[in-house]
Please model this.
Amino acid sequence: MENFIDRFFALGGLLVPIVAIIVGGVIAIVKMIHAHEERIAKIERGMDPDAPWQQPPQQQQQPR
Model:
């Protein structure tokens, strides 16, 4: 057990970049999955997923 701990701390300088690369990869994959699910949902609702986003027109309120 002591040998494992020594080897673990010997990698200390490399652990931060390794974890950063792994976490960055996971974030990229989750982002791609989310974008795909959003695209599929738009297609299922009959929307064009490639159409540019447009804000709905603002309704003007009548003064009281």
